[in-house]
Amino acid sequence: MTLSVFQCNDCDHTLFPARYLCPSCGGADWRSVPIPQGIVSEATVVRQRVGQPNAAPLYLASVISMAGPIVIARSGAALHAGDVVNLTIDAAGAILASRI
């Protein structure tokens, strides 16, 4: 499933995640805007997690969506700043980034 961000129908302000009221104009009417791609701005890897001593590394990235908002996404491999990625949502609702 493709990730979507939210755009105010009154002023076109775009954000993620959704809010009740637009921080720009106070409007409460939103439309969903699909964002299939983004550009990695920062990336990191979590090598150790509390309570999971043998867990596989967890790759995370801050991705600037093509619509503007920044989202935090998981990845199956290390990503680097400047990488162009596809953005999807898995069955559990996690945002996933995969290098193009």
UniProtKB/TrEMBL annotation:
It comes from the Bacteria. This is ChsH2 rubredoxin-like zinc ribbon domain-containing protein. InterPro entries: ChsH2_Znr, NA-bd_OB-fold. Pfam families: zf-ChsH2. Residues 7-30 form the ChsH2 rubredoxin-like zinc ribbon domain.
